[in-house]
From TrEMBL, chain A:
Xref: PANTHER family: CYTOCHROME C OXIDASE SUBUNIT 6B (PTHR11387)
Protein's name in the database: Cytochrome c oxidase subunit
SS bonds (residue pairs): 30-65, 40-54
Superkingdom assignment: Eukaryota
Predominant location: mitochondrion
Family under the similarity heading: Belongs to the cytochrome c oxidase subunit 6B.
Localization per record: Mitochondrion
InterPro entries, A to Z: COX6B-like (IPR048280), CX6/COA6-like_sf (IPR036549), Cyt_c_oxidase_su6B (IPR003213)
Keywords, in A-Z order: Disulfide bond, Mitochondrion
GO cellular component: mitochondrion; respiratory chain complex IV
Organism name: Lates calcarifer
Automatic annotation (TrEMBL), chain B:
Compartments in which it is found: Mitochondrion inner membrane
GO biological process: mitochondrial electron transport, cytochrome c to oxygen
Top-level taxon of origin: Eukaryota
PANTHER family the record matches: CYTOCHROME C OXIDASE SUBUNIT 3, CYTOCHROME C OXIDASE SUBUNIT III
Designated name of the protein: Cytochrome c oxidase subunit 3
Length: 86, 261
């Protein structure tokens, strides 16, 4: 499974089509992957496992999200004021 | 009284439409003055003028209908259409606020945490006071219908009791809602949740006050023998308005209070 993830990450060019978000407004796609990355990190670190699979989500949200949003959310997480559930 | 060979009401000249229009102007411009210059004087003047206008205008209508006999069946039909159209316009007014609530709550933005209720908001428990409020208004719908039947059956004392009970229930609702407003853990300024909640329920509350006042006038008129068992449109209009207020509450309760929690 980890080998598949590795190959997926190596072949990554940009975020693929996600049928959950078919329309022009991709805000939810960015938001969902940002949350999923941090939830993945939190869950795997708690279990003491390798967090490589989480990198997929990070690649997706980095491709999709405006940098200012990511910076704002990172600051909020540092402050403890991030509104999402991680 | 004028002699004419048609059943319609040619109304005498009246200053109240003009004073009403002036009141509307003063209230709206007064609102703008309040926002920009922190003075409520102009708005207050407009409200006083509006109150005087509606009291005297509707007093004149009561005189024309009950004492001068101008409200023939065709005239009454016109009044019925008028009330129905007015209530329809009020339905559309509330529809706008429900639209606003649904716009924000069905697709919550990242700023809210992607959830509804938004992060940081503790909504009111829909099974506490709001449920009691629902029961109170539904009961008042029953008592106002009871009052109507009493009027139609010529049972004067019963009509007075039922109408008084309706007004009492309406006042109890207002009291409970005021307590809720006072103790709510969120305010109108708390993001889109607070805004949609208080604007929608606030306008509803205003309509409860208006409806209660209308019913109180009907009670006074019933006591003074204005209504007959066959002709009591003022009461019917008040009852229609009251049912409308009740229905709006039911929609508010189901969507904002219950689903929205």
């Amino acid at each position: 499974m980890a080998e598949d993830i590795k190959t997926k990450l190596e072949n990554y060019r940009t975020a693929p089509f996600d049928a959950r978000f078919p329309n022009q407004n991709q805000t939810r796609n960015c938001w969902s992957n940002y949350l999923d990355y941090h939830r993945c990190q939190k869950a795997l670190e708690a279990k003491g496992e390798d967090t490589l699979p989480c990198q997929w989500y990070k690649r997706v949200y980095t491709s999709l999200c405006p940098i200012s949003w990511v910076q704002k959310w990172d600051d909020q997480r540092a402050e403890g004021t991030f509104p999402g559930k991680i | 009284m004028a002699h004419h060979s048609h059943p319609y009401h040619m109304v005498d000249p009246s200053p109240w439409p003009l004073t009403g229009a002036i009141a509307a102007l003063l209230m709206t411009s007064g609102l703008a003055v309040w926002f920009h210059f922190h003075s409520t004087s102009l708005m207050l003047l407009g409200t006083i003028l509006l109150t005087l206008t509606v009291i005297q205008w509707w007093r004149d209508i009561v005189r024309e209908g009950t004492f001068q006999g101008h409200h023939t069946p065709p005239v009454q039909k016109g009044l019925r259409y008028g009330m129905i159209l007015f209530i329809t316009s009020e339905v559309l007014f509330f529809l706008g606020f429900f639209w606003a609530f649904n716009h924000s709550s069905l697709a919550p933005t990242p700023e809210l945490g992607g959830n509804w209720p938004p992060a940081g908001i503790t909504p009111l428990d829909p099974f506490e006071v709001p449920l009691l409020n629902t029961a109170v208004l539904l009961a008042s719908g029953v008592t106002v219908t009871w009052a109507h039947h009493a009027i139609m059956e010529g049972k004067r004392k019963q009509a007075i009791h039922a109408l008084a009970l309706t007004i009492l229930l309406g006042s109890y609702f207002t009291f409970l809602q005021a307590m809720e407003y006072n103790e709510a853990p969120f305010t109108i300024a708390d993001g889109v949740y607070g805004c949609t909640f208080f604007v929608a329920t606030g306008f509803h509350g205003l309509h409860v006050l208006i409806g209660s006042t209308f019913l109180a006038i009907c009670l006074a008129r019933q006591i003074q023998h204005h209504f007959t068992s066959e002709h009591h449109f003022g009461f019917e209009a008040a009852a229609w308005y009251w049912h409308f207020v009740d229905v709006v509450w039911l929609f508010l309760y189901i969507s904002i209070y219950w689903w929205g929690s």
